[in-house]
Amino acid sequence: MFKFILKIGVTMGTILAAAVATVMGLGAYWMQPPATATRDATFVVPSGAGLSDVAADLEAANLINSAEQITLLARLRGDASTIKAGEFVIPALSDPAEILDILTQGRAVNRFVTVPEGVTVKNVIARLNSAPGLTEEITDIPAEGTLLPNTYSYALNDTRQDVLDRMKAAMVAALDDAWAARADTAAVGSKQEALILASIVEKETAIASERPLVASVYSNRLRQGMRLQADPTLVYYLSEGTGRLGRGLRRSELNDASNPYNTYRNDGLPPGPIANPGVDALKAALSPAATNFIFFVAGCDGATAFTVTYAEHQQKVREWRACEFRRFMPNPPTVRPTENLPAHRPLADSAVSQ
Fold this sequence. Notes:
This protein is mostly helical. Helices cover 46% and strands 7% of the residues. Among the domains are: 33-109, 2-Layer Sandwich (Dna Ligase, domain 1), CATH 3.30.1490.480; 111-175, no CATH class; 294-327, no CATH class.
């Protein structure tokens, strides 16, 4: 009897050990990443997705061995309701615990869209429309000049309008800061005028150090009642807000007083900004350099030449035109050599007579 009981005990122990080994083996298999998960992978958790859906998607993507295992693990850890929506990078050979850490701590992938200084609202909207991962149409078109150029991050499935609204909020903050720090040399009387002048400065030069000088020219003209005579204001109107005309201005366009953005024929600032200025242009418009400059023209060395009198300006223009002629004129003919030429051989009489 004792031997029989002992035999039963040994048998039950063997079965239990085998069961434990099986469970431990299965658990070890579950806790290991799939052998095929040898590369970093992008995984998207849709908004509103539940734990079971996320687990199934992870298994279908071959990022885990078992949806049931990671579901159990998430519940044991108390993470069942803390998985975040978004786009995540799962490093190669991540185990289920590491994947849960990524999905619950919200380390979502950041995408970026860049708005350069001096682009127009139409250009910004085109960039947002082509940015991958953004959703929904833009319903509130902002006014020109109200978006701050910068690089903005966004997550998958963010809306275009949300990103655009962040650009607007950033411009409000930047303009407030520049306005609070404005200098006595500023010639504008409102934030809107500051935006307009900053947009012109932005389009006139891409060299940061020149912006305060360009702003000083236009500020001096405004104070003296002179017309701004800024080409970019005409280009904005004629290009229908794109800022790119693709040709030079015509004399008839310079004389067209019906164009409200024609600063050759109309006094003061144009009706509105002509682009989205950056922070440096805002600061320049509100804190221009203290100069007597009234004119400027491109220099032959790529820098802008600033002058006080019209006579000085005309001389700089002549220099610029001469430089452009030398740069773009057709190649001059090659001068024929005059030395070491072969001796002249007269034509035969028969050839002459012909």
